[in-house]
Amino acid sequence: LIGERGREVKEFIEQILGAEGMSRAVVVAAPADTPPLMRLQGAAYATAIAEHFRDQGKNVLLIMDSLTRYAMAQREIALAIGEPPATKGYPPSVFAKLPILVERAGNGKVGGGSITAFYTVLTEGDDQQDPIADAARAILDGHIVLDRALAEGGHYPAIDIEQSISRAMHNITTPGHQQLTRRLKQLYSRYQRSRDLISVGAYSAGTDPVLDQAIALNTRIESFLQQDIAERADVPESLGRLTALFQ
Fold first, then answer.
1. Residue 54 is assigned to a structural domain of this protein
2. Do the beta carbons of residue 67 and residue 98 sit within 8 Å?
């Protein structure tokens, strides 16, 4: 937890990890009230711990919240020593440090362990062209985009599947899985683009066969894309539900 509220640390440990999670976790916290150098070192320290376990042959999950606060800490330091601001007030050193940090995650030596890292990124006003979000997209293997409108509509998790993408999916999933995923995204996207026409009754059934199918399956698709915070679903189960969706 880098640059976030101090009370989030206690909530994360007690409500998210619990006793079982803490038995297999290491928590590094550098809250918002710590000096910027401490926040930078907190991110580096957490990554170093993950590297230690990876080098022992373990598969490590590294979750860092947030990469934006890390960038802000570097901005504070850079501006204090006289570095000129560049993109939206961020000095060039910020964009140099981001890949140095995140490139440390990934696979170790052949036959060894790995680090799978999730970095949260905060965007100002949900602007997907935010410089930190833009830089993160360029150096990471994918991104999960959360949408405020979905959250306000009670859709959880509020993941915008149209903007979210995985560059590693083609290497770790079967062609059949990929085909089902593309079909789901096509139907979901077609429905979203025509939502206004459908809601006012301006669309006539039979005009567009793909949209007809999207309308027929919309309720089931919405249900498939939602999951309670305490609900567990593994890959085989999710793939089975995805397959059943189109049968």
1. yes
2. yes
Mean pLDDT over each residue of the chain, to the nearest integer: 91
Question: What b/e string do you get for 10-26 counting C-beta neighbours within 10 Å, with b at 16 or more?
Answer: eebbeeeeeeeeeeeee
Whether residue 123 sits in one domain with residue 55: yes
- CA dist., res. 96 & res. 171, Å (int): 29
Three-state DSSP string of 229-241: CCCCCCHHHHHHH
Q: Are residues 124 and 203 both part of a single domain?
A: no
pLDDT tops 90 at residue 123: no
How far, CA to CA in Å, does 47 sit from each of 58, 106, 170?
A: 14, 11, 27
More confidently predicted of 9 and 191: 191
Under the banding of pLDDT at 50, 70 and 90, the label for residue 9 is: confident
pLDDT for position 88: 83
Statement to judge: residues 38 and 117 lie in one domain:
yes
Does residue 109 sit in the same domain as residue 12? Answer: yes
Which amino acid is present at 67?
Answer: L
- Helix and strand numbers, DSSP H then E, in the chain: 12, 5
pLDDT of residue 71: 95
- pLDDT for residue 130: 87
Domain total in the chain: 2
Q: Give the range of the structural domain holding residue 230, as residue numbers without chain letter.
A: 175-245
Specify the CATH number for the domain of residue 35: 3.40.50.300
- Tens of pLDDT, residue by residue over 125-156, are 777 788 999 999 999 999 999 999 999 999 99
CA distance 137 to 88: 17
Tell whether 160 is covered by a domain.
no
